[in-house]
């Protein structure tokens, strides 16, 4: 395990390193262009050979790509050209390891492109990516994960409105804190892993936001007792396991079952300002005989609006395989012998059976204080628009909307109507309204509901539209109003229409 960087030389190292990375154009876009599509995609699969073929020159950018992203030694001469005056210091601080005439990386430095209009480029320091080219790799208990699918998912989920204060709970190397620092006046980042805390501090300085980001040591909400925030973002160590093996701090909380996610959801409202948001990425147990949404609804504060989206469900065997491989414990990677792997696999499955767990759900939980206690628990494994944060914000606004018969609604521009049925049939067998953006929801409607949606152009009120439909269909106007005001409200709540 690499020695962690300090803040020596009057805390100048991160700033000098930033200057060198910028001078080499070590950015996400430049790296992607250098590697080309094939090599860039291969690196995403942890394969380095195509990338090595594309970085054979000794230019500064190619050198940094080989050194940090491809984890390949480079010549001392090339390293000194790419990192002028820094190689010795980076070796002392644990970034690099020098041998005769060669330099190898001990920590990962990765360019990262953020979403949004500002188009900010960041650099993130973490432990080296394990398992490149299928080589056997066992990560240590205090391994500091870098940019991962989970961290990018949370970044795309998190709202980006301007806030006074934000909390990154379980910061790891600080990815979420770096995002939050772009739109929060003050960010607090917490963790229990000492190595992660040091890297998070270094990353804040490397990206020039150290004045906005305060890193604190402590478990969950303990370091912020009595404090409230406008926005909380957290990707907690949510892996659900019997905790009988080595605990990996970045993924294992040490709490039983899905207690870590439940505790965060129950505790977060006490740490939010009025109208504040908490956004959680997590796993939860799906128990035999109990619907997942019924169980999670019991965690929710009645004073909060809550949108819970279950994005994926894994059976227990697939879940165990996923996380044993994540820890480098599959026999094919040399992590464990076949007998020990089978023993751990069996122990984990047996524990799930004892707990009554039949599957594991994965998804997003977004809470907002100061609402009406609106809640929606949605199973939606389908493709969504990324970043999804604007759709979450729109959902929050929709829950505050008062939809009455006097309201004027406008159908969102991205909503299309689809019909299906037997060829030549006079009437369609099914009518579906489908969003092309945001969550990309689909809603099956009847002919009255479809006509109501189609007439929502802001000119007529909901009551006027329903009265016109009653006349057209020879229906009782009072009954149609009573039956379909709820439809109008649902169209707004689900994002198909907005108040004019």
What does this molecule look like?
- By secondary structure, the chain is of the alpha/beta class.
- Strand 6 (about 165-170), helix 9 (about 175-180) and strand 7 (about 185-190) form a beta-alpha-beta unit.
- The strands form 5 sheets. An 8-stranded mixed beta sheet has the order 8-7-6-9-10-12-11-13, sandwiched between helices. It has a 3-stranded antiparallel beta sheet with strand order 1-3-2. Strands 15-16-17 form a 3-stranded antiparallel beta sheet.
- Helices cover about 35% and strands about 25% of the residues.
- It has 3 domains: about 1-105, no CATH class; about 115-395, Vaccinia Virus protein VP39 (Rossmann fold, 3-Layer(aba) Sandwich), CATH 3.40.50; about 400-500, Arc Repressor Mutant, subunit A, CATH 1.10.10.
- The radius of gyration is 26 Å and the shape is elongated.
- The model is unreliable at about 245-250 (pLDDT under 50).
- It has helices spanning about 10, 15-25, 30-45, 50-55, 60-70, 75-80, 85-90, 150-155, 175-180, 195-205, 260-265, 290-295, 315-325, 340-355, 390-400, 445-455, 460-475, 475-495; strands spanning about 75, 95-100, 100-105, 105-115, 120-125, 165-170, 185-190, 215, 230-235, 270-285, 305-315, 355-370, 375-380, 410, 415-420, 430-435, 440-445, 495-500.
- It starts with 7 loop residues before the first helix and ends with a strand.
- The longest helix has 18 residues, at about 340-355.
- The chain has 18 helices and 18 strands.
């Amino acid at each position: 395990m690499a020695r962690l960087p300090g803040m020596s030389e009057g805390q100048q190292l991160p700033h000098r390193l930033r200057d060198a990375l910028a001078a080499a154009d070590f950015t996400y876009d430049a790296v992607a262009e250098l590697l080309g599509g094939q090599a860039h995609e291969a690196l995403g699969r942890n394969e380095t050979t195509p990338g090595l073929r594309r970085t054979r020159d000794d230019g500064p950018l190619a050198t940094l790509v080989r050194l940090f992203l491809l984890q390949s030694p480079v010549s001392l001469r090339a390293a000194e050209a790419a990192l002028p005056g820094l190689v010795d210091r980076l070796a002392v601080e644990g970034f690099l390891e020098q041998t005769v005439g060669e330099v190898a990386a001990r920590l990962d430095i990765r360019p990262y492109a953020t979403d949004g209009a500002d188009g900010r480029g960041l650099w993130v320091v973490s432990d080296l990516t394990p398992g490149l080219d299928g080589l056997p790799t066992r990560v240590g208990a205090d391994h500091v994960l870098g940019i991962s699918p989970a961290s990018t998912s949370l970044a795309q989920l998190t709202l980006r409105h301007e806030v006074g204060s934000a909390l990154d709970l379980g910061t790891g190397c600080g990815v979420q804190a770096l995002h939050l620092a772009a739109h929060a006046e003050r960010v607090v980042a917490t963790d229990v892993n000492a190595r992660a805390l040091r890297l998070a501090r270094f990353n804040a300085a490397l990206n020039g936001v150290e004045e906005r980001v305060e890193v604190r040591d402590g478990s969950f909400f303990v370091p912020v007792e009595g404090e409230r925030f406008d926005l909380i973002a957290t990707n907690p160590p949510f892996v659900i396991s019997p905790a009988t093996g080595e605990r990996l701090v970045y993924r294992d909380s040490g709490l039983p079952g899905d207690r870590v996610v439940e505790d965060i959801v129950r505790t977060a409202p006490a740490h939010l300002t009025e109208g504040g948001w908490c956004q959680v990425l997590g796993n939860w147990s799906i128990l035999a005989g109990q619907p997942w949404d019924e169980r999670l609804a019991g965690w929710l504060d009645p004073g909060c609006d809550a949108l819970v989206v279950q994005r994926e469900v894994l059976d227990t065997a697939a879940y165990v395989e996923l996380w044993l491989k994540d820890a480098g414990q599959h026999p094919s990677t040399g992590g464990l012998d076949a007998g020990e792997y089978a023993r751990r696999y069996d122990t984990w499955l047996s524990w799930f059976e004892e707990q009554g767990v039949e599957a594991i759900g994965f998804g997003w939980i977004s809470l907002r204080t100061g609402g009406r206690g609106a809640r929606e628990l949605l199973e939606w494994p389908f493709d969504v628009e990324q970043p999804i944060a604007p759709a979450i914000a729109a959902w929050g606004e929709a829950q505050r909307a008062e939809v009455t018969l006097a309201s004027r609604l406008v159908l969102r521009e991205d909503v299309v109507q689809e019909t299906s049925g037997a060829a030549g049939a006079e009437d369609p067998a099914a009518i579906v309204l489908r969003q092309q953006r945001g969550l990309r929801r689909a809603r099956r409607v009847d002919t009255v509901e479809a006509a109501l949606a189609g007439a929502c152009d802001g000119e007529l009120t909901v009551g006027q539209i329903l009265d016109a439909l009653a006349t057209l269909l020879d229906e009782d106007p009072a009954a149609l109003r009573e039956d379909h005001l709820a439809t109008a409200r649902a169209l707004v709540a689900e994002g198909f229409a907005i108040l004019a």
